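User: quick one, fold this
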Amino acid sequence: MDNKYAFVALLPGENVSMADLLSALDAKENQQLYQENDQLKKMLGDKELEIAMILKDLIKKKNPHLLTKLK
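Assistant:
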């Protein structure tokens, strides 16, 4: 399970601003979003390749003379 809450241990007398905490959380969230975006791009690319192969097979079966133009 992914925990979206972060825990910060502060030493006595250590000052951390809310902006620093938020930027640390934003950095973690941005990293997760980039990873998810990369996964989605790969999935989309795989689907596009699959569709291209299906279309190529259809052309090969229905109109083989058009296949030479695609190569």
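User: anything notable?
Assistant: The chain has a mean pLDDT of 79.
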